[in-house]
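User: quick one - fold this with zinc ion bound?
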Amino acid sequence: MTLEQFKAWLLSRGATIEPSTSEWELVRYRLPSAPGVQIIYRNKKERQTYTGTSFRDWESAYHQVNNLVERVKIPSQPLNIRERSNARRELIVQLRKRDGDNCFYCTTDLFNGEIDPTIEHLIPKAHKGSNHIGNLVLACEPCNQRAGDLPLIQKLQLRKISQ
Ligand SMILES: [Zn+2]
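Assistant: Sure. Structure tokens for the protein plus zinc ion:
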């Protein structure tokens, strides 16, 4: 799991990612489920060290990301149209199970039959974001368009705070 995938996982959990206060802080964040700031540091040996719940978070993200990828199995071979729409449908089912029915940004209900959910890349493909489920959330079409290729941190600011 890359740091970017971990950040995407954090965001999908409603975390707030804060700017690092030193070059040693790889990621600094708050999760609604735990008090205080969690930090993952880079030590002098280029290893990661963890504070608070961050080791547990890293572990859960790692397992979840790998499990889901294992189960969803999106082949890297080109798919025909039917295979592609099946893979997409399955991915939407997994994302819905993980995150619920609402647009990641505006919280609109994506499954009330009026709109089609789209799959949004938190780290845009243009910025080398992966198709890994850890980098994906469900969004409505207008929000997906608006988010476009914005950097992750700006996308975060598009989120409706009220959740
Ligand atoms: Zn939306």
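One thing worth noting: The pocket of zinc ion is lined by residues 103, 105-106, 108, 139-140, 143 (CB under 6 Å).
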